[in-house]
Design goal:
Helix content: over 70%
Order of helices and strands: HH
Radius of gyration: 13 Å
Oligomer: single chain
Structural class: mainly alpha
Distance between the termini: 16 Å
Number of domains: 1
Number of strands: 0
Largest sheet: none
Length: 54
């Protein structure tokens, strides 16, 4: 993937995480594991972007 695509995906994942946290506070989240998985996806993307910069 190109860095621009990864940046776009990173923005989408961060927005999804924000929405999940908001829903969790409101008691709407049924799958709490999705929050953990989204955070891991964000970490993977950030790691890959760091490696691409070197």
């Amino acid at each position: 993937m190109q860095p621009r695509e990864l940046q776009r995906l990173l923005r989408e994942k961060r927005e999804r995480l924000r929405q999940l946290r908001f829903d969790l506070a409101g008691g709407k989240v049924k799958n709490v594991r999705e929050i953990r998985e989204t955070k891991k996806d964000i970490a993977r993307i950030l790691t890959f972007l760091k490696l691409k910069q070197k």
